[in-house]
């Protein structure tokens, strides 16, 4: 009996929208992901469909990302960004004509032209394209918590967990027009046994956990991470395949570190004189990454050779073949008696493919093609596996996360500790206002609804991640203070019988700045905090 391989991509970015800045540096995270990751991924799916290659994968898309992909301001700004970058790529190509960097420079101009063509063909509707592929059975769409909250951090306020889960699923349906998905990606793969009942009550039927959640379960899962299990509440839990993770994620042994691949940390925005960058600089001339990177990894030293797209493409194909061969060998080594066929679940951040690892989409495409042709490692979506082989073994998965340490320290450790103080103070204020003026209308009702939205944005796991990682800590800290302050002030405003003209003007401006989930208001928004019925 053959085994299965489930490639799972999780697409998520923090909700970033700064209309007050003409060219926000942080909005570039979305723009980079669009042309480097999401449009190339759609290209992979389109080519597989055209060639009638049947290789389903599972894709989780967060509500915060979907909200940005539906935001007209951000979409217009992406088009402006793409035009500016295309003009810069033409200048770079002319500058390096006839040099050792000529092929790399020409590659980027062609890639940007392809991105612009794809964007135009889609009419800028990335979510719609994903839904069409899902309707054709090429992908299975999942979603996650409303603002990608680190759910174990909210255990002290179960109402917030209920709100994150309910709104995550409802927002996905609102943004895509698709039904609420059966599966849910747990932010940061973070699980605690006390989440089990809430996940089941929210209608979640399956999720993915890191391998040690199952190997350290009570009792330990009999097949380790190679077969899904049931939680006490009936949630089907898949385990992450550690070897697949190491081969792609490892800094030292992973595929992306190969010498011929594009070097991420060398960029024309850092290398060229400012006068040649056509204005692609930050405030006060600060240098920034443009995405045009002309060097290859080469080796661990500072000296880097020119990037060769042809060699890198060949290596991506070779690595895809190696990846599939390793999965076939791993499945062949798993032997069970009267057990369901094993499944190796390989989950990754979608943004790895194309942004951090330029050749990632090509690797993904060739891996899917090889899996489609394999009779030993059959590609499958998670929901489809459950339909064929419902799990029967019941265990209590262990508290766990993916990432450094595996037990949540990256999101709750000393560097991120201040976040949780602000989260819980804001929760107390907002939930108190909700209990006292749940049915408020007019300006108090608007203030209460916006307080809920600000609380949700405050709860995003991205701020804790940035604080611990260090690179974007000042921005994360500013966002934490901003959302916490707004949530508490709005909670007070919601309970005031009258409001001053300045309060009204402030609320109007705030709703325009942060329109996240503006489609939901009143009972549809406030009711998500209620106990399960």
Question: Topology of this protein?
Answer:
Elements: E1 3-11, H1 28-50, E2 57-61, H2 63-69, H3 72-95, H4 102-122, H5 126-135, E3 139-144, H6 158-176, E4 184-185, H7 196-201, E5 206-209, H8 211-215, E6 229-230, E7 236-239, H9 242-249, H10 268-271, H11 309-333, E8 343-349, H12 360-373, E9 377-379, H13 382-388, H14 409-412, H15 417-436, H16 442-458, H17 461-469, H18 473-494, H19 501-513, H20 523-526
Parallel strand pairs: 1-2, 1-8, 1-9, 2-3, 3-4, 5-7
Antiparallel strand pairs: 6-7
Helix pairs in contact: 1-3, 1-4, 1-5, 1-12, 3-4, 11-12, 15-16, 15-18, 16-18, 16-19, 17-18
The geometry reads as: globular
Question: What's the rounded overall pLDDT mean?
Answer: 95
| Through-space gap between termini | 43 Å
What series of H and E elements makes up the topology? EHEHHHHEHEHEHEEHHHEHEHHHHHHHH
Radius of gyration: 24 Å
Largest sheet: 6 strands, parallel
Tell me what portion of residues adopts beta-strand conformation: 5-15%
Poorly predicted spans:
none
Helix content: 40-55%
Q: Count helical runs.
A: 20
The strand count comes to 9
What structural class do the secondary elements suggest? alpha/beta
């Amino acid at each position: 009996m053959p085994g299965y391989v489930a490639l799972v991509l999780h697409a998520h970015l923090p909700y970033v929208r700064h209309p007050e800045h003409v060219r926000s540096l942080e909005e570039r995270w979305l723009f980079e992901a669009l042309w480097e990751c999401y449009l190339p991924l759609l290209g992979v799916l389109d080519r597989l469909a055209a060639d009638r290659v049947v290789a389903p994968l599972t894709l989780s898309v967060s509500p915060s990302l979907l909200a940005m992909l539906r935001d007209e301001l951000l979409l217009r700004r992406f088009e402006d960004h793409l035009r500016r970058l295309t003009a810069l790529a033409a200048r770079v190509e002319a500058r390096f004509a006839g040099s050792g960097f000529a092929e790399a420079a020409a590659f980027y101009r062609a890639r940007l032209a392809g991105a612009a063509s794809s964007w135009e063909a889609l009419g800028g509707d990335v979510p719609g394209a994903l839904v069409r592929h899902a309707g054709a059975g090429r992908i299975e769409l999942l979603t996650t918590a409303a603002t990608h909250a680190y759910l174990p951090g909210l255990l002290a306020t179960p109402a917030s967990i209920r709100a994150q889960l309910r709104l995550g699923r409802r927002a996905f349906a609102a943004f895509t027009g698709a039904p609420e998905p059966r599966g849910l990606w747990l932010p940061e793969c973070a699980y605690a046994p006390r989440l089990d009942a809430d996940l089941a009550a929210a209608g979640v039927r399956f999720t993915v956990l890191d391998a040690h959640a199952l190997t350290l379960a009570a009792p330990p899962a009999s097949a380790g991470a190679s077969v899904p299990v049931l939680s006490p509440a009936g949630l089907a839990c898949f385990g992450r395949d550690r070897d697949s993770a190491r081969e792609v994620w490892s800094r030292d042994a992973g595929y992306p570190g190969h010498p011929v691949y594009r070097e991420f940390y060398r960029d024309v925005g850092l290398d060229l004189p400012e006068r040649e960058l056509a204005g692609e600089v930050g405030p006060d001339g600060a240098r920034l990454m443009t995405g045009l990177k002309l060097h290859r990894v080469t080796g661990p030293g500072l000296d880097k050779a020119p990037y060769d797209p042809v060699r890198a493409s060949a290596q991506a194909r070779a690595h895809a073949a190696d990846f599939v061969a390793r999965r076939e060998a791993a499945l062949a080594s798993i032997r069970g008696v009267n057990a369901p066929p094993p499944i190796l679940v390989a989950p990754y951040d979608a943004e790895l493919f194309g942004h951090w690892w330029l050749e990632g989409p090509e690797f993904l495409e060739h891996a899917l093609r090889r899996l489609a042709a394999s009779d030993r490692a059959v590609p499958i979506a998670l929901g489809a596996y459950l339909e064929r082989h419902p799990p029967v073994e019941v265990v209590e998965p262990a508290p766990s996360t993916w990432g450094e340490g595996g037990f949540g320290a990256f999101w709750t450790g000393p560097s991120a500790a201040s976040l949780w103080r602000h989260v819980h103070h804001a929760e107390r204020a907002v939930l108190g206002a909700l209990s006292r003026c749940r049915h408020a209308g007019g300006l108090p009702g608007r203030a209460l609804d916006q307080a809920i939205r600000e609380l949700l944005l405050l709860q995003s796991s991205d701020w804790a991640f940035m604080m611990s990682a260090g690179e974007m800590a000042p921005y994360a800290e500013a966002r934490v203070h901003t959302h916490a302050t707004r949530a508490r002030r709005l909670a007070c405003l919601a309970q005031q019988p009258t409001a001053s003209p300045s309060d009204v003007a402030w609320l109007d401006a705030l709703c325009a700045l942060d329109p996240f989930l503006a489609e939901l208001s009143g009972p549809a928004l406030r009711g998500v905090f209620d106990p399960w019925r």
